[in-house]
Amino acid sequence: MGRGGSLRILAIVVTASGCFIFNRGKPTRESAFRVPAGEIALSVTNHNYLDVVVYVLHDGQHTRVGTATGSSAQLFYVPVRLLGQGREIQLLGDAIGSDAYARTETLIIQEGQYIEWTLETDLSRSSVAVY
Questions:
Q1: Helix, strand or coil for residue 79?
Q2: Could you tell me the CA-to-CA distances from 109 to 42, 59, 82, 84 in Å, in that order?
Q3: For the chain, which domains are there?
Q4: What's the pTM value of the predicted model, to 2 decimals?
């Protein structure tokens, strides 16, 4: 390899290491939703053909959040005050016109996080994720 080849390899190594060094410590991820202060975003994708009423279960209470129309997606904003001391909630989806329902496990929500809940055609197969 000649002198020109060595200089090219050196330039590539210096450039690549500079990308790693100067990009450290900078946040790479922004929130997926613009959430008003004091609220948490709850994105519900309803694959079920029935409308589903969405509730937040907190501190032994059920609080209605809204209705996720069948075969659509809805974005709700949940007040942070519903989280309580432990910042724990569960979600309950009650299908209108059916005895079917979906219920999540206990979710622990921190400041700046959001919830994505996917309701399937068989509500017992629904899934939830916190980001």
A1: strand
A2: 11, 14, 11, 10
A3: 39-130 (2.60.40)
A4: 0.75
